[in-house]
Design brief:
With 290 residues, the protein is of the alpha/beta class. The chain has two domains: 129 residues, Oxidized Rhodanese, domain 1 (3-Layer(aba) Sandwich), CATH 3.40.250; 132 residues, Rhodanese-like domain (Oxidized Rhodanese, domain 1), CATH 3.40.250.10. The chain has ten helices and twelve strands. Strands 1-5-4-2-3 form a five-stranded parallel β-sheet. A five-stranded parallel β-sheet has the order 6-12-11-7-8. Strand 9 and strand 10 form a beta hairpin.
């Protein structure tokens, strides 16, 4: 297999579905109904796919500070990856992993970023997610995958993340650009459906994560894919203003709790831009100190 791009199409995945060392991960989840994603997985998923839950697998327990979705406990997360058969190195190279969801990349991007952060480059998200797969008429399964044995060696990239102390100290420095990935209404403090305080971090600019994707329609105007990935050129156009003076600014990205910000980080990678740092705690951590 050629090196994985950051985004793969349903046609690509279907053509590689029977590759023995490919790991597929279903990341469907609902912030409003925490068990919905698992129920959807049990009702039908891409053949061979595992299920990882945002709260249970892709995050650690919530504390007073640190945000609503702290990074996972790494030894536990490593065991989860190895159970799925993910290895840092095999005779064919690192185990390729493809993640998908049905939420415009919101949760699949979290897994994509976690694996990249741990030094595992062979990871992609599925363009259009479950909707594109299902609407494309590709096979669906009810079977659960069997437990595998992988050997995953984490290689964390600590300079990829910032905590609140670092953010407070550096956010107003020249050359530092702070991105709020939430909706414009939440950024402006007009609404706050999740956290106890509305608003945004002073100095942040708004790059709504859903602007990374589009709804595709057929020629008759019938919507067929919700949340298809925009082209690399379109992604570059979005992020070019951050470097309009020709300099390579340091970008720090946040959202509510370190989840949908990963869509913007994926967008930067697809655009060929230097990937920003993640303030994992996001607004949920920042406002816990107010």
């Amino acid at each position: 297999m050629q090196p994985l791009p950051n985004v793969v199409t349903p046609a690509w995945l279907a053509a590689h579905l029977n590759q023995p060392n490919l790991v597929i991960v279903d990341c469907r989840f609902s912030l409003a109904e925490a068990d919905l994603g698992r129920q959807q997985y049990q009702a039908g998923h891409i053949p061979g796919a595992w299920y990882l839950d945002l709260n249970r697998d892709l995050s650690s327990p919530v504390g007073r500070h640190g945000g609503r979705h702290p990074l996972p406990d790494w030894p536990t997360f490593r065991q989860v990856l190895e159970t799925m058969g993910v290895s840092s190195q095999t005779p064919l190279g690192p185990t390729p992993v493809v993640a998908y969801d049905d939420s415009r990349f919101a949760f699949a991007s979290r897994l994509w970023w976690l694996l990249k952060y741990l030094g595992h480059g062979a990871v992609a998200v599925l363009d259009g997610g479950w909707s594109a797969w299902h609407q494309g008429g590709y096979p669906v399964s009810l079977e659960l995958p069997r437990v595998e044995t992988g050997h995953f060696v984490p290689q964390p990239q600590p300079n990829w993340i910032v905590d609140i102390d670092t953010l407070r100290r550096r956010k107003d420095e020249p050359g530092v650009r702070l991105i709020d990935s939430r909706s414009p209404e939440r950024y402006r403090g007009e609404v706050e459906p999740i956290d106890p305080v509305a608003g945004s971090i002073p100095g942040a600019v708004n790059y709504f994560w859903q602007a990374d994707v589009r709804d595709e329609s057929d020629r008759e105007g019938m919507r067929i894919v919700i949340g298809a990935w925009k082209s690399p050129a379109e992604q570059r156009d979005r992020f070019d203003p951050l470097c309009k003076d020709g300099s390579r600014n340091e970008v720090i990205v946040y959202c509510g709790s370190g989840v949908t910000a990963c869509v913007n980080l994926l967008s930067q990678a697809v655009a060929g831009k230097p990937m920003g740092k993640l303030y994992v705690g996001g607004w949920s951590d920042w406002c816990s100190y107010l």
